[in-house]
User: Fold this.
Amino acid sequence: MEYRAPPLRGSRSIFLGVLFLAVVALAPECGEAFTWPWRVGKPWPKSSTRPVDTLDHPSLEERIAALSPGPETGYRFAVFGDQRALADGEWQALLRCLATVASADPRLLFVLDTGDIVWDGRHADQFHLLREILSPVRGLPYLVGVGNHEVRDNSSITARRNAAAFLRYLDDGISEERLYYRKEIGPASVLFLDSNDFVYGDSGAGGDAPCPPPRGRAARQLEWLVEELNGGVPPSSGSIDPLVTIVVMHHPFLQTSSKHADQARALWAYRHEGRALPDILADGGVDLVLVGHTHTYERFRLERADGRAMALVNVSGRPRASLLWIGDGARRARDIRGREARWLAGRGWTGLDRWRVTQEDVMARNESDQFALITVGADGGLVLEMRFLDEEGAGGCRSAPAVRLR
Assistant:
């Protein structure tokens, strides 16, 4: 006689059934670990009742014109990222803290977002909500390294069109086909990349490509990047821009959290005309790379065998607590100090023999939302100060000791 398990009865079966249905319902919407309480996608509207308007913050050029003395004597800017996942309260608290800092520091020139500025760029009304969220820093230019959520992993032309419309005030060349641009700000050249083209391809289907396809957006962007970094002169000539150079890109090519690690490994090895992306940056004299995507804070120093060095700083909020065990720890950064090469090699990073990678700081425990304050000196020096959201801290934030990046 065939054995059949008895059906589940009572409150336990009801609980399991509800849990199963909730997981199934949430799965298509969730781009990260499920959270408790269940506020996936909140407070972002899923509607498009109004067309997207360009952001009404002052442009960087307008802000520089009003600054006395000018940025050539040095300035500060604030960095945060991936706050769309914390827009049910923490992002707002972070911006209030930042506004307090800005009101006391006239040399704070602009705010910089490493991406994921809305939950889903297909819905135009989300950009209107974003404008409201940013109101505490309305007097500052808002510069963005475009993230994957505002362009829907490049799978939606509507999302790219909405993102371009919102950010067009940053640069006349911004369009749905070009979401990268450059700013010259006193001693610094800052290049904002659209790393979505490298990670997802033109249509969102090229996630494992080792190099950009010919004549695609990624190839055009990398050609632009090489030209901007080297002035059209081959890097072998030794011609390097003397200014401090900063690159902003949403996706990191080094990280210790497990979620999206495959993308980071692919970017580390991503090649254009025979050179990997980190080599292109090092050859071009890049001093600092600002990234996001992983919902944590960590800082690396990379030094190539020929002495070229750059810092990589990930400023991207914090991971939400997991629902039960689902996705637990996937976004949590790991402390690998002292064993970086062995740890990275064991997880698939290649070509490390030419690089010395040092993890200088990491938010592995007691994670909290954060932003960075970066000081650019008249001599091109770079100093980093981290501020972490803390109700008991001054103005709602606590400060970490300043560190020199360059």
Notes: Residues 1-6, 23-38, 232-242 have pLDDT under 50 and may be disordered. The CA atoms of residues 72 and 186 lie 4 Å apart. The chain has one domain: 45-404. The longest strand covers residues 297-304.
